[in-house]
């Protein structure tokens, strides 16, 4: 069964991801879910055996009900392991790899892969609780709220409770960029609308600071395959700020005040509702869970950045492979490259768990497997109605023209005030999300990327519509009522 889609994910990452689910019994004491990935030209479907996912979910929920602090401990351990992985990959990235043999380079990947796999195992425990058919945290919090407050306050209180108080790496980047803009506020009007090449010559101190910013944050939006952000990308963010009329000092103060107010409101709500110990912990952990999923993914993004920009780059140079080809090969085979096999793997492959091990298929066998075993839940009848519903991720109201944005190639379509519509947003399209008057997605739950980023940006967002990208097209005029969870064509 197809669970969801993703983009720009190659065989290198897909096999690592699937390996992360082999040790749930030994690591967490819950049954192993049977999962995998079907990939066609780096566009993927996550696949699973629903009954096994349900069993893993039920096992995990049972453990949480016995010990509600379990989620908190898992998050803490995940962050520790991620930091250890980042330390390892950063050291590798600083080695002079030209002096290393191909066997030694492969050895680095053999150590890196299980570290990343373990992080996927830990990380997917959180969306396991809140994806498609299952929503333990959201349901638990909302059911409690329904008993305590009026119906019209449930979504309002839930959004406050489940919004993270902790800062994401993306927010840290944004604050640092705003601080850079404030430092150079005297030249903002002069750089508006200009190319970075012009600015570099005229304002060398500004450019030097932008280089330092890029060095510190280039990995934040790298995800599985990059590319890393450049000075041009961050300069585009600055141009967006200027076009929107954002004033750096005021924006930094707004972020500070909103965080302070959020923490205050959370405590007021908990004091007002007087939850029992179990419900209080689930309420308190909900925002941390929403923060922890992207935090873990950002840690992994940093390690992918380190490895792809060092080991994979060196192996590509040695073997004459492009980056796409290098990410479409079992890394154990870099010393015996079969370009025909590499091409077939890129065109289509499946990696999945079968009897306690990860298996891989490519070419004709992958197509046959997909046709025989993968049932796509999204292939449902599309209503002719001009209105459809989804879950509210960030409350608000907006009107605008639709732009379908799924990958970085679609970003150029976005203009300020458009409505961004996506199957599922990713860090690769954050620059488009910053221009959006509202965001609408087919997929998503409490911890999805669109839900998290829309709250950081304060942009109205409706997720999990299932049909948005099927019934809408570029240029459609729509209303997004993220107070009622309704999207309507005008």
What does this structure look like?
Among the domains are: 2-136 and 290-373, no CATH class; 387-489, 3-Layer(bba) Sandwich (Glucose Oxidase, domain 1), CATH 3.50.30.10. It has helices at residues 11-19, 24-28, 50-66, 70-93, 102-123, 125-128, 136-148, 151-162, 169-183, 188-191, 196-202, 204-217, 231-244, 248-273, 277-319, 323-326, 339-347, 364-373, 430-433, 449-457, 468-471; strands at residues 2-6, 35-40, 43-48, 130-131, 134-135, 349-354, 357-362, 387-389, 391-394, 397-404, 419-422, 438-441, 461-463, 477-481, 486-489. Helix content is 55%, strand content 14%. The chain is built from 21 helices and 15 strands.
Keywords, separated by commas or semicolons:
alpha+beta; Glucose Oxidase, domain 1; eight-stranded mixed β-sheet; 490 residues
Helical content stands at: 40-55%
Task: Provide the gyration radius in Å.
Answer: 23 Å
Percentage of β-strand residues: 5-15%
What's the assembly state of these chains? single chain
Concise summary:
With 490 residues, the protein is α+β, with helices and mostly antiparallel strands. Among the domains are: 2-136 and 290-373, no CATH class; 387-489, 3-Layer(bba) Sandwich (Glucose Oxidase, domain 1), CATH 3.50.30.10. It has helices at 11-19, 24-28, 50-66, 70-93, 102-123, 125-128, 136-148, 151-162, 169-183, 188-191, 196-202, 204-217, 231-244, 248-273, 277-319, 323-326, 339-347, 364-373, 430-433, 449-457, 468-471, and strands at 2-6, 35-40, 43-48, 130-131, 134-135, 349-354, 357-362, 387-389, 391-394, 397-404, 419-422, 438-441, 461-463, 477-481, 486-489.
């Amino acid at each position: 069964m197809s669970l969801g889609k993703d983009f720009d994910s190659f065989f290198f990452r897909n096999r690592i991801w699937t390996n992360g689910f082999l040790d749930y019994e030994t690591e967490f004491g819950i049954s192993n879910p049977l999962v995998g990935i079907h990939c066609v030209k780096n566009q993927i479907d996550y696949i699973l055996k629903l009954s096994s996912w349900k069993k893993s979910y039920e096992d995990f929920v049972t453990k949480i009900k016995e010990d509600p602090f379990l989620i908190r401990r898992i998050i803490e351990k995940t962050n520790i392991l991620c930091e250890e992985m980042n330390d390892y990959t950063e050291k590798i990235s600083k080695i002079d790899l030209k002096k290393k043999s191909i066997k030694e380079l492969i050895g680095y990947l053999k150590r890196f892969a299980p570290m990343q796999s373990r992080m996927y195992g830990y990380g997917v425990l959180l969306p396991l609780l809140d994806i498609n058919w299952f929503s333990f945290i959201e349901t638990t919090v909302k059911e409690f709220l329904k008993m305590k407050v009026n119906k019209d306050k449930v979504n309002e209180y839930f959004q406050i409770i489940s919004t993270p108080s902790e800062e994401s790496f993306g927010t840290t980047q944004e604050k640092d960029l705003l601080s850079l803009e404030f430092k150079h506020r005297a030249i903002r009007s002069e750089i508006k609308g200009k190319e970075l090449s012009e600015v570099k010559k005229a304002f060398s101190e500004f450019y030097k600071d932008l280089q330092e910013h890029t060095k510190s944050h280039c990995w934040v939006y790298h995800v599985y395959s990059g590319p890393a952000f450049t000075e041009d990308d961050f300069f585009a963010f600055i141009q967006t700020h200027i076009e929107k009329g954002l004033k750096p000092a005021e924006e930094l103060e707004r972020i500070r005040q909103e965080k302070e107010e959020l923490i205050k409101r959370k405590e007021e709500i908990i004091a007002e509702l007087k939850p029992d110990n179990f419900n209080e912990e689930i309420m308190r952990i909900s925002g941390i869970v929403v923060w922890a999923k992207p935090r873990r993914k950002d840690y992994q993004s940093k390690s992918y950045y380190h490895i792809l920009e060092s080991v994979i780059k060196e192996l590509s140079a040695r073997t004459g492979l492009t980056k796409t080809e290098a990410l479409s090969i079992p890394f154990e085979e870099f010393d015996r490259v079969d370009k025909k096999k590499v091409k077939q793997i890129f065109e289509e492959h499946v990696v999945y768990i079968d009897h306690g091990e990860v298996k891989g298929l490519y070419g004709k066998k992958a197509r046959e497997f997909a046709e025989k075993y993968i049932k796509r839940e999204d292939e449902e009848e599309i209503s002719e109605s001009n209105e459809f519903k989804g879950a509210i991720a960030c409350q608000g109201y907006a009107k605008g023209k639709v732009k379908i944005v799924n990958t970085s190639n679609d970003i150029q379509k976005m203009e300020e005030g458009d409505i961004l519509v996506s199957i599922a947003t990713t860090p690769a399209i954050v620059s488009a999300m910053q221009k959006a008057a509202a965001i609408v997605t087919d997929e998503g739950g409490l911890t999805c990327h669109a839900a998290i980023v829309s709250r950081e940006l304060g942009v109205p967002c409706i997720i999990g519509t299932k049909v948005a990208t099927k019934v809408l097209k570029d240029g459609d005029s729509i209303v997004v009522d993220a107070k009622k969870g309704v999207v309507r064509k005008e």
